[in-house]
Amino acid sequence: TGASGGGNQAVWLSSLDERVKVVVPVASMGSFDAYVTRSNCMCETLPGGLAISEQWHLLGAIAPRPLLVLNARHDQPAFGVDAMTF
């Protein structure tokens, strides 16, 4: 688990390493598009990654392992409900 950037790192790690058994990213899920277009820190994105992937692709790569995504309803726009359900 992790919050904000830690949540992003938990998703990256879990999508690539099956040794992680359960994933709980907190206040970090939205879309790479939202990160880019809403002036967020690019330090948590893969350079050029938007052309080949989106955050839900990484979440899908975690299946069938347990995944719980926790976001705040009124968090910044990049991590809000609109970005997450785009």
Structural overview:
- Helix content is 35%, strand content 5%.
- Helix 1 (5-16) links the parallel strand 1 (2-3) and strand 2 (25-26).
- It has 86 residues and is mainly alpha-helical.
- The protein has a two-stranded parallel sheet with strand order 1-2.
- The mean pLDDT is 79.
- The protein has helices at 5-16, 32-37, 55-62, 81-84; strands spanning 2-3, 25-26.
- It is globular.
Q: What's the short version?
A:
The protein is mainly α and 86 residues long.
Beta strand %: under 5%
The count of DSSP E runs of length 2 or more, i.e. the number of strands, is 2
Uncertain spans: none
Straight-line N-to-C gap: 23 Å
Report the C-alpha radius of gyration, rounded: 12 Å
Sheet with the most strands, sense and barrel status? 2 strands, parallel
Spatial order of the strands forming the largest sheet: 1-2
Gross morphology is globular
Q: Output the structural class.
A: mainly alpha
Mean pLDDT: 79
Question: What are the secondary-structure elements, in order, as H or E?
Answer: EHEHHH
Report the total helices.
4
Q: How much helix is in the residues? A: 25-40%
What labels would you give this structure?
35% helix, 86 residues, globular, 2 strands, mainly alpha, 5% strand
Task: Please render the helix and strand layout as text.
Blueprint lengths: L1 E2 L1 H12 L8 E2 L5 H6 L17 H8 L18 H4 L2
Parallel strand pairs: 1-2
